[in-house]
């Protein structure tokens, strides 16, 4: 669908403990952003850090920036190397650039994910609405890759060069710069200079480790990064947040001020477009397709697999046509789920096998077209010999499931639990083994209602056991126990 035909609406559910943002395209939820006020993203924050240890073999270093886990920096993220590589295409070893105990000004470029600490860079950048300023970089002008027309890129580069004459550091023009006036760019430039001067002043009165600059909160980042000319409305269910965003827009983006609206209706804002229901779907493995087919999405730490199935779909003229239509429908659903769930890293897609090369090409092209709307960088390969498509999507923040869920104590993160019959047989074996070592008067089984019901329904097993060990066995229900929990008491 051409960008001009996409109508975007942004819904913001803001409370004093959490902010949730939903991006709707033509009434359908495409992206979800959630930030807990006690777990705000660190990306963009600038810290005065202390180097703890150099790892020459990995060309990395651990840095204390005051978080619960040490952050790390790779040699490629040191500004000296970025500047050197752009001129001579060589890399200086990390042990020649920094040393243990050194205080360095760093910026978080990737949040802590799982057991990995935050990733840092000394190539500092400050994002405005139109420009990204890199004050410590060599003087240069970069243009966003999303501005693809070469003539437009060159004209924009010349314009920004003329407006930043005499300015130290480098600049990158964001996509918003394409339609920005000279006045807009100068306002953004003034804001970035003021911000950088405050950061420099702050470093002089802080000791390492300490935070020097904190990036915008989620609602403000949405105003800066997500709102486009396609955005029709920005609805917020908090008067305080609405006022804050209007004041922010007056300074940094006056053109969007009229789009910001306070939502004060009794119906919860996320009930629009059934967003809470969409969140539940995005946390499950199975995603139903309208045709009757479905996706199975399995997420692991290393990669994500997506399996496409026809399910109950029999709508095609023949079996090949049914498979083709299911795969075509799946491409749009996959692109949407990648954005909804914020899946990153390596992604393997197992479409239903197709023999027709025309069908394969059509499915691959439709997948690329659907994913082209994604703001996050992706790369898509061709069909492999095994009929799989491999792709990557840049990790920018935690996935939705890791943000909202935790490992299951019942199944030990296996995604499955033992059946009631399996547990009952385990109990019988354990009692049999205990009877050989001890000589109690009675055995007592304490377990969940389902386990006790199974023993009662198939009581011949328990009866045979009692005859075998020549001891009585009693049953007690403990409603607090899950299906796999039980105790065997010897009396």
From TrEMBL:
Domain S1 motif: 44-123
Lineage top rank: taxon: Bacteria
InterPro entries xrefs: NA-bd_OB-fold, RNA-bd_AU-1/RNase_E/G, RNase_E/G, S1_domain
Transmembrane segments: none
Gene Ontology CC: cytoplasm
Single GO BP term: rRNA processing
A GO term for molecular function: RNA binding
First-level EC class: hydrolase
Co-factor(s): Mg(2+)
Any coiled-coil regions, as ranges: none
Keywords: Hydrolase, Magnesium, Metal-binding, RNA-binding
EC number(s) given by UniProt: 3.1.26.-
NCBIfam families cross-referenced by the UniProt entry: RNaseEG
Protein name: Ribonuclease G
Protein's organism: Candidatus Kinetoplastidibacterium desouzai TCC079E
Lineage start: Bacteria, Pseudomonadati, Pseudomonadota, Betaproteobacteria, Candidatus Kinetoplastidibacterium
